[in-house]
Amino acid sequence: MAKSELDRTTIDLFENEKRPGRPKTNPLPREMQLKINKRNQIKRDRARGLKRVEFKISSELYQALSDMAEEQNISRSALIETILQEKLAINR
After folding, report:
1. Pfam families from the xrefs (predicted)?
2. What is the pLDDT of residues 28-70, one digit of tens each?
3. Distance (Å, rounded) from C-alpha 30 to C-alpha 36?
4. If you write DSSP's letter for every residue of the chain in order, what string do you get?
5. How far apart are CA 76 and CA 68, in angstroms?
6. Could you give the CA distance from residue 34 to residue 59 in angstroms, rounded to a whole number?
């Protein structure tokens, strides 16, 4: 059977063909990479003295915070921290 360059339905014929794109550089699966990256981020945050706070808000409030943070050219997290500091009058 002849191999047609246009036929991509028979993948076994093309398994040795080099595909464009970046080669795989990390031997771990993506799920494990994400877990390790998250763990390292938490360690860096702890070393900087940061504490994690999680809460749920409405999508309208979320969008308003995102828009305001973008206008001020800061992260949403930094904006929320600023608002809380102002409300509690704990300006550093």
Report:
1. RHH_1
2. 889 999 999 999 999 999 999 998 889 999 999 999 999 999 9
3. 10
4. -PPPTT--S-GGGGTTSPPSSPPP--SS-HHHHHHHHHHHHHHHHHHTT---------HHHHHHHHHHHHHHTS-HHHHHHHHHHHHHT---
5. 8
6. 26
Is-contact 76 65, C-beta < 8 A? yes
The chain-wide mean pLDDT, for the chain, equals 84
| Per CATH, domain 53-91 is 1.10.1220 | yes
Alpha-carbon span 85 to 92, nearest angstrom: 8
69, 63 Cβ separation under 8 angstroms: no
CA distance 43 to 37: 10
